[in-house]
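Record minuted for everyone:
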Amino acid sequence: MKRGFIALLVLLALLAVAGFFRTHQEARFETGTFGGVSLKVEFARTEAERELGLGGRLSLPSDYGMLFIFPRDDFYGFWMKDTLIPLDIFWLDDKGQVIFMAEEVATSSYPTVFKPNTRARYVLETAAGFAKAHAIATGTPLLLQSFPSVSE
């Protein structure tokens, strides 16, 4: 009887941990619309998440993007260090509209730093070719249920 009770407690603890991680994982993603197509967006909120970005990934689905969330508008520079796949990079204002873009950024471009010509609040990275395939241009909005914010 004691052994069964301990097993039940262990099972409940495992379910609680799994639920925590599932909730935490889901909070890092949201489905939005960009250029008229559905896009699964992963959020990079912390300095560590923003620093890692899409580095080390071997592939990226065509309907996937990573949104880098910053605490204030600034001239955020991006490079391709440890990035193994070419990307399209979009700088967005505080309303989520494209204000600057770098298309088809090659992995071999490192250590070049790509920066916008105006201050941005968010940066979205997608697989290279997304901008061309979906006619993304300055002013195109990324539509999300709500844009997350971060503090410094």
In short: Confidence is low (pLDDT under 50) at residues 7-26.
